[in-house]
Amino acid sequence: MSYINGGVCAAKGFKAAGIYCGIKKSADISAKHKNDLGLILSDTPCSTACVYTTNKVKGAPIIVTKKNLDKTGGISKAVIVNSKNANTCNADGEEKAKKMCALAAGALGIEPQEVIVASTGVIGQILPIEPIESKIDELASRLSYTGNEEAATAIMTTDTIKKEYACEFEIGGIKCKIGGMAKGSGMIHPNMATTLNFITTDAAITQPMLQKALDEIVKVTYNCLSIDGDTSTNDMVCLMANGLAGNSEINTDDDAFDTFMKALYEVMMNLTRMLAKDGEGASKLIECECSGCETKEKAIIIAKSVIGSTLFKCAIFGEDANWGRVLCAIGYADAEFDINRVDVDLASEFGRIAVCRNGAGVEFSEEKAAEILKSDEIMVYVNLNEGSASAMAWGCDLTYDYVKINGDYRT
Q1: Could you give the angle at the alpha carbon of 222 between the alpha carbons of 220 and 226, nearest 5°?
Q2: Neighbour order of strands in the sheet with 285-293
C-alpha cells in the first residue's frame, strides 16, 4: 500500500471540478479558497455507501440523498456539493436539494436519483438556488480527471487548508486505488458527526460489503475525532466504488475484503488527522492512544474521552503538562478499569516523558515537558495494563481563536 496524489480523482474513472458561483460573498474568503460549488462524476455507475450524522436535526441534503439511494438500490454516479449554506431548517430545504440534483443531472446527462447532494455552512438561512443554476453548466464543463483540488477547495468553510488523501493497493494482483477529500474545522464531535467526506475507489465491491466496510472503519476513524463537542446537522461520509480497476468483485468477508478495509482505513485515518489538526483556531493536533485494554470498545471510549476534554485541550494550548486532566477525563469515561494500574506518557518529536504510573504522579522535568509540548503534534499514551486491545482518537487544542471564529460565524 502506498500514498499517491489525486484525492477523489486518484481512482480510475472519477472526474471532479469546483467553481465559485456566488453563494460565498466574494469578500468572505481568499481567492485561493473561493470555490463554493463542487462536482464529482464517475464514468460508470457506482456501488455507494453512506454514513450520516446522528443529530436528530438533519439537513435537507441528507434526507434527499437517502431517498435517492433508496430508489437506486445504493447506486450513484455523481455528487454535487455547496459550501457556505447548510440548507438546513428551511421550509424549502428538500425542494432546493432536489433542484440541485436535477440541475446536476441535466448538466451531466444522468438521472436525478443518481446524484448525491450535500451542503455545508450556516444553518437556517435560505439557500439561493440561482447562483447554482447559473454556473452548473460551466461547472460540468470543467470536470477533469485532475480536478480534485478545485473540488476539495469548494467544500471548505472555516477550513484553512484543503484535505485530500489517496493510496494504491493490490487485490488479487490487480492494482486498485482509493482516495478522498474532506472538509471540517468546527462543529465536530464523535459518532458520525464529523464533516463532509467523499471517498472514491475503482475497486469492484458489492454495495452491502462496501457499506459494511464503511460502517466498520468509521468507528475507528471519524467517530474517534472531536474538535469542540458539537454534532453537526449535515455531516456524512460517502463512499463510491465503480469497479474499473478490474479486480474480481469483493462479495464476502475474505482476504480481499480485509485488504480493502486496510486501504479504506489508511485514507480515512489520514483525513481524520487532517481534520483534527485544522480544528477551528487550533494550534496543535492531539492524538491519544489507549492501549492495554480488555476490548477495543473500551480503548475507543477512553481515548475519545481524553481528546474531548475541554480542560485538557486548554492545557495543551498553554503547553502545560497538567496530566491530572488526563486522569480526570479517563475517570469520567463510561468504562470500568483499575485506576491503580493506569500509566500516562506525553510525547512529540521532541521526546517522550512519563507523567503518571499506577494511577499516581511521578517526578518529571517540567523543562523537558515544556519542550515536548512546544510541538504542533502531541501524543498522549494511556495504558490500562489489563489486556492487549488498543485504539486511537484525534482532537486539537482549544484556543482564543475558536471563540473569535464562532462568535460572529453567521454575520
Answers
A1: 110
A2: 360-361, 351-357, 343-348, 377-383, 285-293, 389-396
The widest CA-to-CA distance across the chain, in whole angstroms, is 68
pLDDT at position 193, please?
39
189: how many CB neighbours lie within 10 A of its CB? 22
Interstrand relation of 285-293 and 377-383 (parallel, antiparallel or unpaired) = parallel
Q: What is the pLDDT of residue 194?
A: 41
What is the dihedral sign for C-alpha 199, 204, 205, 207?
positive
Question: Model confidence over 146-162: pLDDT tens digits?
Answer: 999 999 999 987 788 89
Where do the H-state alpha helices sit in 130-227?
130-141, 148-154, 207-220
Rg of the Cα trace of the chain?
22
Beta strands 196-201 and 14-19 are unpaired
Q: State residue 231's pLDDT score.
A: 53
Residue 187 has what pLDDT? Answer: 46
| Nearest alpha carbon to residue 329 among 355, 292, 296, 301 | 301
Q: Which of 262, 261, 297 is nearest to 391 (CA)?
A: 297
| Burial class of residue 299, CB neighbours in 10 A (0-12, 13-18, 19+) | buried
User: Dihedral sign, CA of 118, 235, 272, 270?
Assistant: negative
| Cβ-proximal residues to 31 (8 Å cutoff; 6+ apart), any chain | none
Task: Give me the mean pLDDT over the 106-112 stretch.
Answer: 98
What backbone phi and psi angles, to 5 degrees, belong to 81? -145, 140
Catalytic residues: 194
Q: Which residues pair with 161 in a beta bridge?
A: none
Q: Are 118 and 38 in contact (CB under 8 A)?
A: no
Residue 340's Cβ-count burial label (10 Å; 0-12, 13-18, 19+) is exposed
Torsion of the alpha carbons at 66, 70, 71 and 76, rounded to the nearest 10: 70
β-bridge partners, 395: 286
Residue 224 DSSP class: G
